[in-house]
Amino acid sequence: MSKAQVSLRKKDILGLETMSSPEINLILDTAKEMKNIIDRDIKKAPTLRGKSIINLFFENSTRTRTSFELAGKYLGADVVNISASSSSVAKGESLRDTLLTVEAMGVDIIVMRHEAEGSAQYAANVVKPVLINAGDGAHEHPSQGLLDMFTIKQYKRKIDGLKVAIVGDILHSRVARSNIWGLMKMGAEVHVAGPQTLLPRDIEQVGVKVHNRIEEALDQADVINVLRIQRERQKKGLFPSAREYARIFGVNAKRLALAKPDALLLHPGPMNRGLEIAPDIAYSEQSAIQEQVKNGLAVRMALLFLVLMGGIQIEAAN
Ligand code: CP
């Protein structure tokens, strides 16, 4: 046996559409190691000491921003947060100038969330530091897709062959897109369901099964990923009322029972309780929503580690 270096093919983490299954496996395996650090009393590893990370958030966040911050700090890096509302963006500074300003400070990683689809790729073209996409409009949210797969693997021991139902506001969801790309690469059978007005046109062409009735998607599912209704991205009413949505598309105990008895319930958060998910199942025995948050930390530690350290050493057969 000799040692072989396994690493990510690209400098930046922009999305799962362009990530290979060996790369996804590398991140999930590394995240498993990182989770051991989170479970320690002293949550510190010096791996990224001397490195600096800027969290540049043009949209609100609780989970992603905080977990990237903690992930960087647990690995010994210096982490600074910039939110658009309290920065010079509020005075009219452009995205390009903001990125160049951050780059001039010599940072190693920029973690960016922005409302425009394609903004992560744009930023990666503008600046030299590693760019990690923390969500670009309705396009991709790769670290969320990865933490969802990590959580599925933790409970189900595999992803290949599972029926995964992604239900709700697919149209406006970057989480849905990253999940779909990632899960299909890992061999899952992906079903999506939602009102016709919240399903992207031609979504079936990417290889998912599409349902207008949520019951069909949930039938014998191994995993249910409930998406948030993204009112902030909806320009006009796309369903009659919250009450109607909950009645026809909300996931409740009765609908959850259509899935396999041990089906796993996921939600990326933040939840609209009583709209897309019934309050009594949100933290039920089948729910892994809190575990998703913890796993988000492990996955983001893995990403920061891999993009800066260039990969990991594995035993390789000669
Ligand atoms: N799931 C997710 O991205 O949550 P935040 O908006 O709180 O980061």
Automatic annotation (TrEMBL):
Annotated residues that bind carbamoyl phosphate are located at 63-64, 113, 141, 144, 269-270
Any one Gene Ontology MF annotation carried by this entry is:
aspartate carbamoyltransferase activity
Q: Is the keyword Repeat in the record?
A: no
Q: Which Gene3D superfamilies match?
A: Aspartate/ornithine carbamoyltransferase
| Positions of the Aspartate/ornithine carbamoyltransferase Asp/Orn-binding domain | 160-306
Catalysed reactions, as listed in the record: carbamoyl phosphate + L-aspartate = N-carbamoyl-L-aspartate + phosphate + H(+)
Q: Name the source's superkingdom.
A: Bacteria
Residues that bind L-aspartate: 91, 174, 228
Keywords for the protein's UniProt record, in alphabetical order:
Pyrimidine biosynthesis, Transferase
Stated role? Catalyzes the condensation of carbamoyl phosphate and aspartate to form carbamoyl aspartate and inorganic phosphate, the committed step in the de novo pyrimidine nucleotide biosynthesis pathway.
Q: Which PANTHER family match?
A: ASPARTATE CARBAMOYLTRANSFERASE, ORNITHINE CARBAMOYLTRANSFERASE, MITOCHONDRIAL
Subunit-structure text:
Heterododecamer (2C3:3R2) of six catalytic PyrB chains organized as two trimers (C3), and six regulatory PyrI chains organized as three dimers (R2).
* Protein name, per record: Aspartate carbamoyltransferase
Q: Which organism is it from?
A: Sporomusa acidovorans (strain ATCC 49682 / DSM 3132 / Mol)
- Gene transcribed to yield this protein: pyrB
